[in-house]
Amino acid sequence: VDKPPVRRVAIFGGTHGNELSGVFLVKHWQENGAEIQRTGMEVKPFLTNPRAVKKCTRYIDCDLNRVFDPDNLGRTVVEDIPYEVRRAQEINHIFGPKGSDEAYDLIFDLHNTTSNMGGTLILENSRDDFTIQMFHYIKTALAPERCPVLLIEHPSLKYATTRSVAKHPVGKYEK
């Protein structure tokens, strides 16, 4: 399949303000991004929920990782709009718009979990050849360490995650 190359990549940390691995990595790369830069690519580390990070809490008003749906992204900004809905609209403006040709090619959203699952990649679409090949590359590079892939595809769900703004959404969970 002839598809355009991946040129714009975002690395998100802090979608949940109490999941600190992604926060630390994003802050590190914002200060010294040489190790993530590649010729011919734009790689942007981004702190997704800075207010929740500052308070070290999952979220302020609602879960940022659940509000990237058309209703919330299209809401009129008023004074009492939940912080995370307003933030989702800002993120969609910067990295999207969701579902468009202008959207970032790849968003890699870094999370932590208390589950004993180790490093796990999250796949939302089993027909996304690029992401499947990328996961194969990552798994091969990490071998012999385990790196499971969790497929969360559902035929009637449209995901409302931060990463769903990109053409190729990737979630990474780490214990």
UniProtKB/TrEMBL annotation:
Organism whose genome encodes this protein: Baryphthengus martii
Cofactor field: Zn(2+)
Keyword match Chloroplast: no
Lineage start: Eukaryota, Metazoa, Chordata, Craniata, Vertebrata
GO cellular component terms attached to this protein's record: cytosol
Signal sequence interval, chain numbering: none
Assigned keywords, A-Z: Cytoplasm, Hydrolase, Metal-binding, Zinc
InterPro entries registered for this protein in UniProt: AspA/AstE_fam, AstE_AspA_cat
Pfam families the record matches: AstE_AspA_cat (PF24827)
Name by which UniProt lists this protein: ACY2 Aspartoacylase
Keyword Metal-binding carried by entry: yes
Superkingdom classification of source: Eukaryota
Family: Belongs to the AspA/AstE family. Aspartoacylase subfamily.
Major site of localization recorded for this protein: cytoplasm
CDD domains: M14_ASPA (cd06909)
Domain Succinylglutamate desuccinylase/Aspartoacylase catalytic: 6-169
SUPFAM superfamilies: Zn-dependent exopeptidases (SSF53187)
GO molecular function, one term: hydrolase activity, acting on ester bonds
Location within or outside the cell: Cytoplasm
